[in-house]
Design a protein that fits this description.
heterodimer; A: alpha/beta; 15 strands; B: 363 residues; alpha/beta; five-stranded parallel β-sheet; 18 strands; binds flavin-adenine dinucleotide; binds adenosine monophosphate
């Protein structure tokens, strides 16, 4: 079995800067990590490898420094890692990103057919949850998002049974390989890297693919050109024009404060008294 | 962002002209999501928002209802009219009785290709995100996820979709210019629920799915409904009492529960409190938790970080208790008390208790 896990390198903190002209994000100087949601998918892939035997290839599209994310994945037990990196990808939105990743996976298939693709539920920077479905549609894979549990995998029949989170419950689904799965957070816990895998990760000859190596011929499908969505404005949230009415606290007892607050509030918002009466009844 | 670049930019921008092939795309659509016999409230919240967009553009507003044949789907269409739709596209087929990506993607994609809406809105639920991402890729159009504000850029009649970016520290407005439809998802409770008008009616256009079961690879073996008993329902609570790291110790959180009990309120919390294990994940309010819109939100020991704020600023009245007079929460709360939450909370609980007792006597 061959499993591909898509992982993204993301900035670790809420520290961000935005390019003043292009309105794109400047990543320099911000510490980078593997997108936390992707680790649940990677761990699930490694579990399948433990149970059924598999080759696990991790795939990341990003700048050259994103190789650190891939080495991390190798240290957890992934077998192969491919970094798709090219200036031509700059400014890609989710449609363009899923195109590039799908092309790369098709290239990976030439070496060994892929049975399952894993993606994270969403990223913490893009935060769209769109790239996984996008890859599935472009590759015509069965799409299974928000999976909470893989119940059974039958490699002879090429069938997989799993639990998928719906709004008001859990769907138990059976489908055919090849498929694309995004795991729900908290469904497993990432293993520790073993010493030998850490050594392997440090020495692993990472593959770097540019757009040609990733099988991308049509450059109008990637980068800014291939992205229907355009960021027209980036701005800081506006403070509300009116600040809170501060109940004067100088030298007053908590009891007094509370009573004053309630009196003020119920005068200005008479409906609240009724609401509270209803709720507490 | 420097001022000079801000000023220069619009002037340098060429006037936008829509590809003539896309001019036939007209109207605003809202996907009406339902599960187990009930429409998800986010669909009606979107219907309210869709109404405003349609009115600005001077185009009709449509609901899209997909499901198994029966009286239920018809009822959902009627409800869509009550919440503001002018018409409904109805796709009925037994294959649509449970949500599955393949038939729903085909169905919605076919509807878009047949009737050409310029804007398509879906709820950012597990179903909505799964479907929106698939439909947008199939149609090769732009999709903006988790919007907090939708507007029309009148200059080029395009959808201006605003969403938090990079952990919510910034907002960005995204447009999809030369692609149709312009798609967006919005999380539940971000938009307010519109008023229902039972006298409104509309027309229903039916369209077939055109698939048979053997076309569909994924089978639903079972559906296990959540056991909701005892589960907090924060998004729809009318009153919420929330605590943050300023509560200092897990034991002190009892003060939050005490006040909530008197008010008949739900208990909420900030992320650090949830991560410390003081309360369940279900109670986290904010960008990576629940979005809430209660009539009253009481925040004790909460600084008011943007990631928390985006989840609760839709509350009608916000009371903030914080020992730091410069805490950001006072920038957007309705009432503020600067003080020690450990002393203020019990006093507030007592004051509410008395208020409620007098109110009962008065009745
Ligand atoms: C990607 C991302 C997603 C996030 N998602 C969320 C989210 O969904 N929800 C969320 O809440 N956070 C979220 N956060 C975290 C967020 O940035 C803040 O760190 C968090 O909201 C702060 O929680 P807090 O207000 O409890 O703690 P703090 O910021 O530490 O504030 C504690 C406050 O208590 C006050 N205080 C101290 N002692 C007392 C006292 N005795 N009485 C009264 N007040 C006192 C202090 O003055 C201070 O203002 C997210 C962060 C990131 C990066
Ligand atoms: N640049 C990328 N490289 C590899 N995988 C990615 C990339 N961008 C997104 N993904 C995958 O798609 C998932 C969803 O991303 P998003 O749509 O940005 O929320 C992520 O969790 C990753 O698994």
């Amino acid at each position: 079995m061959h499993i591909v896990v898509c992982i993204k390198q993301v900035p670790d903190s809420a520290q961000i800067r935005v390019h003043p002209v292009t309105n794109t994000i400047m990543r320099q100087g911000v510490p980078a990590i593997v997108n936390p949601y992707d680790l649940f998918s990677l761990e699930e892939a490694l579990r399948l490898k433990d149970e059924y035997g598999a080759r696990v290839t991790v795939l990341c599209m990003g700048p050259p420094q994103a190789e650190a994310a891939l080495r991390k994945a190798i240290s957890f037990g992934a077998d192969d890692a491919i970094l798709v990196t090219d200036r031509a990808f700059a400014g890609s939105d989710t449609l363009a990103t899923s195109f590039a990743l799908a092309s790369a996976i098709k290239k990976i298939q030439e070496d060994m057919p892929v049975d399952i693709v894993f993606a994270g539920k969403q990223t913490i920077d893009g935060d769209t949850a769109q790239v996984g479905p996008g890859i599935a549609k472009r590759m015509d894979l069965q799409l299974l998002t928000y999976v909470s549990k893989i119940v059974e995998l039958d490699l002879d029949k090429r069938e997989i049974t799993l639990h998928r989170r719906a709004e008001g419950g859990v769907q138990v689904l059976k489908t055919q390989l090849p498929c694309l799965i995004t795991m729900l957070e908290g469904t497993n816990e990432m293993r520790f890297a073993t010493m030998s895998n850490m050594f392997r990760a440090a020495r692993y000859p990472l593959k770097q693919w540019d757009k040609d190596a990733a099988g991308i011929e049509d450059v109008t499908k990637i980068g800014l050109k291939g992205s229907p969505t355009i960021v027209s404005k980036v701005f800081a949230p506006q403070p509300k024009l009116v600040r809170a009415e501060i109940i004067d606290c100088e030298s007053r007892e908590p009891k007094d404060l509370a009573v004053t607050l309630l009196a003020k509030m119920f005068t200005k918002h008479p409906n609240l008294a009724e609401e509270i009466g209803k709720a507490s009844a | 962002m420097s001022e000079t670049t801000e000023q220069k930019k619009p002037a340098g921008r060429r006037k936008f002209e829509l590809d003539p092939r896309l001019e036939s795309y007209k109207g605003v659509w809202v996907f009406v999501e339902h599960e187990r016999g009930a429409v998800h409230p986010v669909s009606w919240e979107l219907m309210g928002e869709g109404r405003k967009l349609a009115d600005k553009l001077g185009v009709p507003l449509a609901g899209v209802v997909m499901g198994a044949p029966g009286i239920q789907t018809r009822r959902f269409c009627q409800e869509a009219f009550h919440y503001g739709a002018d018409l409904c596209y109805l796709m009925e087929d037994p294959l649509l009785s449970d949500y599955r990506n393949q038939p729903f993607t085909k169905g919605l994609t076919d509807l878009v290709n047949a009737y050409e809406p310029e804007i398509l809105l879906l709820g950012a639920t597990t179903l909505g995100r799964d479907l929106a991402g698939s439909v947008a890729t199939t149609l090769q159009t732009g999709l903006t996820a988790d919007c907090t504000e939708l507007n029309i850029d009148m200059e080029n009649r395009s959808l201006a979709a605003t969403r938090p970016t990079f952990g919510g520290s910034l907002l960005c407005t995204i447009v999809t210019l030369n692609y149709r439809p312009q798609m967006a998802t919005v999380r539940p409770r971000v938009m307010s629920m519109p008023k229902k008008d039972d006298t409104r009616t509309g027309t229903i256009t039916e369209h077939p799915l055109g698939m048979i079961e053997t076309d569909i690879v994924t089978k639903v073996l079972e559906y296990i409904p959540d056991n909701l008993a005892g589960k907090p329902q924060l998004p729809f609570a009318d009153i919420i009492v929330s605590g943050g790291r300023g509560m200092k110790r897990p034991e002190n959180f009892q003060l939050i529960w005490d006040l909530a009990k008197v008010l008949g309120a739900e208990v909420g919390a900030t992320r650090p409190v949830v991560q410390a294990g003081w309360v369940d994940l279900e109670r986290q309010v904010g960008q990576s938790g629940k979005t809430v819109r209660p009539k009253l939100y009481i925040a004790a020991g909460i600084s008011g970080a943007i990631q928390h704020r985006v989840g609760m600023e839709g509350s009608d009245v916000i009371i903030a208790i914080n020992s730091d007079p410069n805490a950001p929460i006072f920038d957007f709360a309705t009432y503020g008390i600067v003080g020690n939450a450990m002393q203020i909370l019990p006093a507030l609980t007592e004051a509410f208790r008395q208020q409620l007792a007098t109110a009962k006597v008065a009745v």
